[in-house]
Amino acid sequence: MIYLKTDEEIELMRNANQLVGKTLGELAKHIKPGVSTLQLDQIAETFIRDHGAEPAFLGYGGFPNSICASVNDHVVHGIPSAQTILKEGDIISIDCGTFLNGFVGDSAYTFCVGETSEETKQLLRTTKESLYKGISEAKAGHRVGDISNAVQTYCELRGYSVVRELVGHGIGKKMHEEPEVPNYGRKGNGPLLRNGMCICIEPMINMGVRNVVFEKDGWTVRTKDGKKSAHFEHCIAIRPEGPMILSSFDYLEEVIGKDI
Question: How far apart are the first and last CA of the chain?
Answer without folding.
Answer: 38
